[in-house]
Amino acid sequence: MTNALLTVVGSVNEDVTMFSTALPAPGGTVLATSVRRSAGGKGANQAAAAAALVGRSRLIGAVGRDAFGDRMLDALRSAHVDVSLVRRVSIDTGRAYISVDPSGENSIVVAPGANASVVVPPTLRGPVLCQLEVPVRAAIEAARATDGFFALNAAPATTLPRELIDDCDLVVVNEAEYAAMPELRDARLVVVTLGADGAAAFERGVEIARASGRPAEVVSSVGAGDAFCAAVVLAIASGSSVSSALAVACAVACAVGAAAVASLDARPALGTLTSYFALSDASTPRPT
């Protein structure tokens, strides 16, 4: 199995995570039982997860010329992420304010800051993964620039232009995002995460593969989706796109997601991608 170098075009944030006995209702206030600050951002989390899974990755993004930006870049370097294409700009580094309840459920508000200033190079070698904590304009540019496999984690949910959907080899969303973006029924390939029920793959709106969820003790779901995205892209990129291989890729990503929810960290400690292939259904053919 080939370990592809994944390039992520995406956000870099400082996460401020507040743990409480319940998520606040509209107009309500709850008291936090604890607060943690950590390195985050969907793009940075996905790049860190990819580096953990296969040993290396590359991130294209932007941070401010502030102490937060320094800390975020140091954390990425420590995670073996190439940050040579992360810009320093005169805008504050992005922030995410996260609330987590005892079941691990979360709600997130993101202040994009420097993430709005991402510049995409004219040519990118695939596989490439992007998400929507950077401007849609950057996602369109990344899709056009990619020479190879391009994946979009369409989160946060928004209306996607037809040209972007057509340029995606893969779109990854959760159930709520899939329901909120009916235009994805026409996408070439969509993987929908189903929480504890696993994941399913759809081709032009028709289900073609499915994987069951893996048992997990849920501590926090904050970084699970990002780890899943990195894993499913790397697993698909390492094999063919037939439905049997898609089922394996979804199973591998579900195993990675289960490991992620057992950690408080948005960038949980992960094993190698190969180790998660070993946890997938042995009766299903592996990509070679």
Automatic annotation (TrEMBL):
Known function: Catalyzes the phosphorylation of ribose at O-5 in a reaction requiring ATP and magnesium. The resulting D-ribose-5-phosphate can then be used either for sythesis of nucleotides, histidine, and tryptophan, or as a component of the pentose phosphate pathway.
GO cellular component: cytosol
UniProt pathway annotation: Carbohydrate metabolism; D-ribose degradation; D-ribose 5-phosphate from beta-D-ribopyranose: step 2/2
PANTHER family per record: RIBOKINASE, SUGAR KINASE
Domain Carbohydrate kinase PfkB: 5-256
Compartment(s) of residence: Cytoplasm
The name this protein goes by in its record: Ribokinase
Predominant place of localization: cytoplasm
Any one Gene Ontology BP term: D-ribose catabolic process
Cofactor dependency: Mg(2+)
Species in which this protein is naturally found: Amnibacterium kyonggiense
Catalytic residues of the enzyme: D226
Residue positions binding substrate: N13, E14, D15, G41, K42, G43, A44, N45, E133, D226
Coiled coil: none
Catalytic function, reaction form: D-ribose + ATP = D-ribose 5-phosphate + ADP + H(+)
Residues that, per the record, bind K(+): V222, A260, S263
Binding site for ATP: N174, T193, L194, G195, A196, D197, G198, G225, D226
